[in-house]
Amino acid sequence: MNVPKLRFKEFTDKWQKVPLNLFTNIYGGYAFKSENLLNYKAKYQVIKMGNVNNNTLNLEKNPSYLNTISQKELPYLLEKNDIILTLTGTFGKKDFGYSYQIKNETNLLLNQRLAVFKITNSNYSANFLKYILLNNTFLNKFFRFSVGGTGNQANVSIQDIKSFKIPFPKLEEQNKIANFLTTVDKKITNLENTITSLENQKKGLLQQIFSQKLRFKDENGNNYPNWEKKKLEDISNITMGQSPDSDFVNTEKIGTPFLQGNAEFTNKYPIEKYWCTKPQKIANPTDILLSVRAPVGAINIANKKFCIGRGLSAISFNCNKLFGKYNLEFNLFQLIKKSQGSTFSSINKKDISEVILFIPCLEEQTKIADFLSAFDRKLENQKAQLEHWKQIKKGLLQQMFV
Question: What is the pTM of this model?
Fold first, then answer.
């Protein structure tokens, strides 16, 4: 039955399957010669595969420019409402098929291995097509048609995409669905902007507090004693991780949760993917976890006992533990600078031990930790809301389309 599970009540007609090329001009990008591209800002920016990731457009990532374009290159100049799609990724993975609708960006040129969709029929909405390309009906077809290229590369051809038959409703229903999902997208964007603003505020607060421009007072309104200069090794115990034998690692939740590196640091607390029955090195609850290899400097808190691999270290502060975390977070530049001196981005125990921190009395430590953790709770609340709305959108994309 060509009708979606979730639908506005005024619409009852079946959706009709139509090939994408019936109402859309679809073509690939231009093979701009790398020797002609500029690495400084010029009139036109060439949009490459790396600029389109997770359905967002990042113009700051490895930008390439041109001052002028020829008549031959003119058709690859993107226009408002054009939708672009990445065509190449890793075989067996879904690290391509990302799409983005051009908004108010100007002077963008489409490079090879991306496709552009331009609506050619007024009975079809570009805003609705944008959501079609995010929907599993399209993406399942897309990945089924991916074929191996050079090495482990996978590609989907323009010709195959043109032949895809996708269910579409009439224009009025297209517009209503697109407008509704656009409202959800605006909520998501607002939350993302709020999170970015809060993260910038936090950076400013860390700068003010740990440069001692912003000081707390005691209960009588007096200044606390001067801060003391310490090496990290003087106020903490540092444990460097060691990866256990793979025979002792499992995904069946047997033994101690095992963390390999910063890849598990995407949430408030580490993500548990692996377990170890014979751990070599342990991080205890409330220890600060620090990534020490490629990249250096991700920080999290151990909310339970973990086995840690060689990509991590565990730092147990003798001072207020939360204060220690924030102080280390502010002083990460010392470790990152040291890691950049080696071929492979990494730091060792000596590097960590020699980090210089300034430490106030315990009472001021506690006030600083309480203040910053309250700010973090506000930030985490916004992140939780963002994840909630992303899940709502995911559910809507599954239920509002055939």
Answer: 0.88
